[in-house]
Write a structure and sequence with these properties.
Order of helices and strands: H
Helix content: over 70%
Oligomer: single chain
Distance between the termini: 36 Å
Number of strands: 0
Strand content: under 5%
């Protein structure tokens, strides 16, 4: 991943939020798949 620009301090926070959302969505989908197997 490219390092964030020094003049854009919000980028790392957004990256973390996006990663957390992706992890949450993946976990929820995984749990749903296990539940319906």
């Amino acid at each position: 991943m490219a390092p964030p620009e020094p003049n854009c301090p919000i980028t790392p926070a957004l990256d973390v939020l996006i990663q957390l959302e992706h992890w949450k969505n993946s976990s929820l989908l995984h749990l749903l798949c296990l539940h319906y197997l």
